[in-house]
Each structure stands twice: as C-alpha cells, then as structure tokens.
C-alpha cells in the first residue's frame, strides 16, 4: 500500500481543534487533501485510538469521535500486528523513541510513505525510509 503521506494523530486533532486556530488552519488543508486523493495518505489503528481518546478528552462527544473515525477509516489503515510491534521495538532502539512514536514510525514505514506529517518527531529526520515533516514548524 505505498502512499505519499502518513498522518500522525496530532494532525487529525488539530484539524478539529477550535482552541488552536493557527494549527487548525494548517491541519485542515492536509486532511482535505487526503480526502481529495484517496489512497495517497495513510493512518494506523494507533492513530485512530489516540484520536478517539484525545478528542473526547478535549470535550467532544464520543459519537462525533466515532463518526470521524468511520470517515478516516476509508484511508489506508495499518493494523496493529505482532510484526508491526517488533518493528516498532527496532525503531525505538535505533532512534531512541518512546514506544508510541516508534510504533507510528513503524506504521509509516509499513505503508512505504515518503513523509510522516507530525509535530512529535524531529523535523527532517529520516526514520527507516520515512522523513518526518512538521507542518507547524516556523521556517
């Protein structure tokens, strides 16, 4: 399932965050582009799980979270698996990442994405075959 982009959870959260207008204005076009080019952008089950928890934590309804997750699930979604977990452990050691960030990088690599859009990883660093790009970063 080669894709151009892999979205980290924070991109989805900012796309619907009414409290971070500046970041929302950056995230929304990224999400819209994913809708316009089906198959070009992937996410993972972990991203969906994190989105659900944090979206509700910010005061949104579980029903709205479920509806959005249903919408997001039309994109290529990397399932949690033992192979993915093992690769995540390798990324954790190799790049000194938290397990959660390592799992995101492993999932992005599983999609053969060129770029992972994220606020959480080092901008410009290559993780396996995927470059981390922070779209919120000031040039």
Structural notes for this entry:
This protein has 139 residues and is α/β, with parallel strands linked by helices. It is built from 6 helices and 6 strands, in the order βααβααβααβββ. It has helices spanning 9-15, 21-36, 45-57, 62-72, 82-95, 99-110; strands spanning 5-7, 41-44, 77-78, 115-117, 126-127, 130-133. It has one domain (7-133): Rossmann fold, CATH 3.40.50. The mean pLDDT is 96. It is globular, with a radius of gyration of 14 Å. α1 crosses α2 (21-36) and α1 (9-15) crosses α3 (45-57). β5 and β6 (130-133) form a beta hairpin. It has a 6-stranded mixed β-sheet with strand order 3-2-1-4-6-5. 53% of the residues lie in helices and 13% in strands. The longest helix is centred in the N-terminal third of the chain and has 16 residues, at 21-36.
- The proportion of residues forming helix, as a percent range, comes to 40-55%
Uncertain spans: none
> Strand order within the widest sheet?
3-2-1-4-6-5
Largest sheet composition: 6 strands, mixed
| CATH C-level class | Alpha Beta
Write the layout of secondary structure elements.
Layout: E1 5-7, H1 9-15, H2 21-36, E2 41-44, H3 45-57, H4 62-72, E3 77-78, H5 82-95, H6 99-110, E4 115-117, E5 126-127, E6 130-133
Parallel strand pairs: 1-2, 1-4, 2-3, 4-6
Antiparallel strand pairs: 5-6
Helix pairs in contact: 1-2, 1-3, 3-4, 5-6
């Amino acid at each position: 399932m080669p894709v151009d982009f892999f979205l980290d959870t924070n991109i989805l959260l900012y796309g619907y965050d009414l409290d971070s207008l500046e970041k929302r204005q950056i995230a929304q076009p990224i999400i819209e582009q994913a809708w316009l080019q089906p198959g070009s952008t992937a996410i993972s089950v972990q991203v969906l799980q994190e989105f659900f928890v944090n979206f509700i934590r910010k005061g949104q309804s579980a029903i709205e979270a479920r509806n959005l997750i249903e919408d997001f699930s039309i994109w290529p979604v990397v399932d949690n698996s033992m192979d993915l977990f093992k690769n995540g452990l390798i990324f954790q050691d190799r790049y000194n990442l938290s397990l959660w960030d390592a799992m995101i990088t492993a999932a992005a690599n599983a999609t053969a994405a060129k770029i992972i859009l994220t606020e959480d990883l080092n901008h410009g660093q290559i993780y396996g075959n995927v470059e981390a790009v922070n779209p919120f970063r000031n040039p």
